[in-house]
Design goal:
single chain, TIM Barrel, about 30% helix
Length: about 325
């Protein structure tokens, strides 16, 4: 897992699978699929159903319930987080800080201002601008650094969003500048037309250059979701899965997926590879997060110390 100061990003097959559940995203609408959750109540219901099946964390996007358009409003995020934590106070919650729709720092950072029982554990940090099929997610260097700095100030762990090798290089640069500190968590999102593909050579180079002490998941856009998830589980990694990235259950596109379908399929893949799903409490320990149940975000230095053992990072004091 981690050997001295050198990272071994190819985690052993006995390492539990992190399931990062992405139920909504910014793109799918009810016109495209009736199964995508849009309102806070729908998102809460899908997250709790996925948690019952077995997930480790959730990556949230909030939507305006009437227009279905993405929103940055803290009251909408707060309603979703409250509904999830009323039932699952242990689940790791990440909020989106995407620049695909909103360009201002105050807008993008607004979900980070939630506190107390509504405080997010993590916030997404896309490490460069990205061209998608029909639009661009703009992430200027000053914006990326400002969001990283704000998450440091608020005690929130960045969820590193990686689409190509340049973004991995930029993560290492931010770590050298002191704007990122390990342990890290990274989503490697593959299959976008302008970015890295679900190719073993692409994946290998990305993993090789991740910052030390990085826990990683593979996600895939559209038809590539199942392939990326399968490669990750077979190679000892973890997964990002949900309707945010893919609305179809099959590559022939004959059946629209439900979020629960996609999560259950991850369990089938994990069982076939003799791997277990990681509990939220275990990932909280590995990432030096607060324990949940009313305490959220990054653990303070006084609460948490980490050491290296044969299984990677573990909490040794609280």
């Amino acid at each position: 897992m981690v050997h001295g100061s050198k990272p071994d990003h190819h985690r052993p097959l006995h390492q539990d699978v992190i399931v990062n559940f992405t139920p909504t995203g910014m793109i799918p609408t009810k016109a495209e699929t009736p199964h995508v959750p849009i309102t806070p109540a729908e998102i809460i219901e899908d997250v709790l159903q996925a948690a019952e099946i077995g997930i480790t964390m959730v990556h949230l996007h909030a939507r305006d319930p009437r227009s279905e358009q993405p929103t940055y409003r803290r009251d909408v995020y707060g309603e979703i987080i409250a509904g999830i934590r009323d039932v699952r106070p242990d689940l790791i919650v990440c909020v989106s800080l995407s620049g695909r729709t909103f360009s201002g720092f105050e807008q993008r950072a607004e979900p980070l201002t939630l506190t107390g029982g509504l405080k997010p554990d993590m916030g997404s940090l896309t490490l460069s601008s990205v061209n998608f099929n029909r639009q661009t997610s703009v992430n200027e260097p000053d914006m990326i650094q400002a969001l990283a700095r704000e998450m440091q100030r608020q005690g929130i762990l960045p969820e590193l969003e990686v689409f190509d090798l340049g973004m991995v290089n930029y993560a290492n640069y931010l770590e050298r500048k002191g704007l990122l500190t390990g342990p890290h968590y990274a989503n490697i999102i593959l299959g976008n037309i302008a970015c890295a593909q679900v190719d073993l050579l692409h994946i290998g180079v990305l993993l090789k250059d991740l910052p030390a002490n990085t826990f990683w998941s593979l996600g895939g856009i559209g038809d590539m979701q199942l392939t990326a998830n399968s490669v990750a589980i077979a190679s000892g990694g973890s997964v990002r899965v949900g309707l945010e990235d893919n609305i179809w259950y099959d590559s022939r596109r004959t059946r629209l997926a439900r979020n629960s379908d996609l999560v259950r399929r991850i369990h089938v893949l994990a069982e076939a590879n003799e791997r277990h799903i990681m509990a939220p409490s275990k990932l909280r320990t590995l990432l030096s997060l607060e324990p949940g149940y009313g305490s959220y975000g990054r653990a303070t230095q006084e609460r948490s110390a980490t050491s290296l053992d044969g299984d990677g990072l573990r909490l040794i004091s609280a």
